[in-house]
Amino acid sequence: MLLHPRFEDNQQVYLIYAEAGDGGSGAAVALARLVLDENGGGELEDLKVIWRQTPKRQKVWTCSDACERLQLSETRFT
User: Which of 36, 57, 67, 72 could disulfide-link 42, Cβ–Cβ 3.0 to 4.6 Å?
Assistant: First the structure.
């Protein structure tokens, strides 16, 4: 998970993960809003996939590869 640069204002997070597809697996990046409850729990709302590796391959892109492609800073990973 990577915090949006304006997380304190918009509570948005990036999720970077691998997904299966034709030809193998590939990286994907989604954007969602993290909504916390009063008990310390929470959920993701308004999740939207904003990028998918195509074509899928036997070698999955790393989080570093996906971040570089989207010009996101890895130093914000939590």
Answer: 36
Q: How many domains does the chain contain in total?
A: 1
Burial 46-67 (b: 16+ CB within 10 A, else e): eeeeeeebeebeeebbebeebb
Q: Is residue 11 part of a domain?
A: yes
Q: Which two tokens stand for residue 24?
A: 């193998």
Q: What integer pLDDT is reported at residue 29 of this predicted model?
A: 93
Selection from 59, 2, 6, 13 nearest residue 36 by Cα: 13
For residue 77, being part of any structural domain is answered with no
For 22-47, the pLDDT digits (tens) are 888 888 999 999 999 999 899 999 99
Query: What is the span of the domain harbouring residue 68?
Result: 2-72
Q: Give a yes or no: residue 37 inside a domain.
A: yes
